[in-house]
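Quick one, probably user error.
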């Protein structure tokens, strides 16, 4: 049966033991793989990831045109730097994903929003809606693991891409989120090695 959601890639930098924190990721390699591998039409970001970026945002060059859409799962309306995100030079536009219990937003806030789900953002409905936008076929997830874990549990991840860093015993947040990872059958797509001891693993989720 054809999928009613776009192709979803979870691309994460991890330690050998699967954590996304506690080490310095090779950002240049991480983003080089993003820009040369999938040609994403949208980035689906967790609110924690975006909140961790907000203090580092400076006046950017403006929207990237053409560029991917940035959609943020923000059920609690905690993200505030929408304009700075849009102007950062990575995305063409921004989109807030809310649910019916999301607190009221400031009047006149410029960011468009989609409201799906009751207590939390309905991720499948959000992806369906994003996928109905013209030209959106590939969505990359930007998350330290918690959003990826929810998407995996809901059967919404098509590809897992891990850039393994040569470090272990550091950090405490796994790339599959909280609790044990869901059982999944994986089909290998590709592997590669890079300088600095980095290993890249790509799998299709069956
Ligand atoms: N190593 C890497 O590759 C990498 C990549 C990106 C980020 N990071 C780091 O990772 C950290 C943040 O990652 P994180 O894993 O803590 O958080 P995250 O994935 O960025 O954010 C958690 C997201 O999951 C959503 N969520 C949780 N449960 C849900 C459910 N049942 N239904 C729908 N949505 C749900 C939350 O929505 P609500 O807001 O609505 O609650 C939130 O958007 C930052 O420190 C960042 O720097 C690392």
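Nope, works fine. Designed sequence:
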């Amino acid at each position: 049966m054809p999928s009613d959601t776009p192709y979803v890639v979870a691309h994460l930098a991890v330690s050998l033991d699967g954590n996304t924190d506690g080490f310095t990721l090779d950002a240049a390699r991480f983003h080089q793989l993003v820009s040369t591998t999938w040609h994403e039409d949208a980035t689906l970001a967790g609110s924690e990831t975006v909140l961790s970026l907000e203090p580092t945002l400076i006046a950017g060059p403006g929207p990237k045109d053409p560029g991917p859409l940035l959609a943020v799962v923000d059920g609690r309306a905690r993200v505030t730097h929408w304009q700075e995100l849009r102007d950062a030079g990575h995305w063409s536009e921004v989109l807030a994903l809310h649910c019916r219990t999301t607190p009221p937003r400031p009047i006149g806030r410029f960011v468009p929003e989609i409201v799906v789900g009751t207590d939390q953002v309905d991720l499948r409905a959000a992806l369906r809606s994003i996928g109905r936008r013209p030209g959106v076929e590939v969505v990359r997830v930007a998350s330290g693991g918690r959003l990826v874990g929810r998407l995996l549990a809901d059967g919404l991840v098509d590809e897992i891409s891990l850039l393994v860093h040569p470090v272990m015993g550091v950090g405490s947040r796994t790339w599959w989120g909280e609790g044990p990872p869901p059982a999944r059958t994986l089909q290998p797509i590709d592997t590669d090695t890079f300088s600095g001891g980095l290993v890249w693993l790509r799998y299709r989720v069956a």
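Residues 1-38+141-206 form a domain with the Dihydrofolate Reductase, subunit A fold (CATH 3.40.430.10).
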